[in-house]
Design brief:
- The chain has a single domain, classed as Phosphatase 2c, domain 1.
- The chain has six helices and eleven strands.
- It has helices at about 25-45, 55-75, 160-165, 175-185, 190-200, 205-210; strands at about 1-5, 10-20, 85-90, 95-100, 105-110, 115, 140-145, 150-155, 165, 170, 215-220.
- α1 packs antiparallel against α2.
Amino acid sequence: MVTGSNEAEILVAIAADGAGSAAHGGTGARLICEAFCSHFQEKLKTADLSHLRLEDIKEVVSAARARVYRESSILNVEPRELAATMVAAVVGPQVAHFMQIGDGAIVIGQDDGYGVVFWPDAGEYANMTRFVSDADAFEYLHYDMRTAPDEVALFTDGIQRLALVFSTKSAHSPFFAPMFTQLRSASTDVLESLPTKLAGFLDSDVVNQRTDDDKTLILATRRASEDL
């Protein structure tokens, strides 16, 4: 959570997944997350969230790309060796900005259920996707500004088969509903233990039998105080 220019509390969330074929994919994913959060926090010090547009989003993503390219120069490797996808959400009291390059997905919850913001970008061939470091990354940048949701989940492609219904291109509500119910009702003391419980679930046999990929899942819900 960061404080915006009008003193409102704003959620800045991002998940990135390094390409399995990239020698330094994990490093690329980490740098993208760090640069994105840092530059968005700086932007929110002077800009109202409701006034941001696509060009502002591109500016922040450009900063993340520049950080990856700078690291590739330090490591003396091609930028593709730090290839990583990204899904991100910036959510305030009234409006939210969503952006994505590559696979993984963002699911939001409102009174009428759960919906997918952007369908995972699988690329032209099976097991392929787009990456932040791609020369044409901005051609595949998905962006949308919406009314702020009550709940939001961001996840990498390792969870797609559990969290999405591919036949209808929709969210698998039974996957999300129990977790959000527990998150909404948890006391402060219980909240501290939820990340450990979630990590245990994601590494359980029942989940690992469905996917052998890396798994990242971020969950946020609007509490009684109106904050996410």
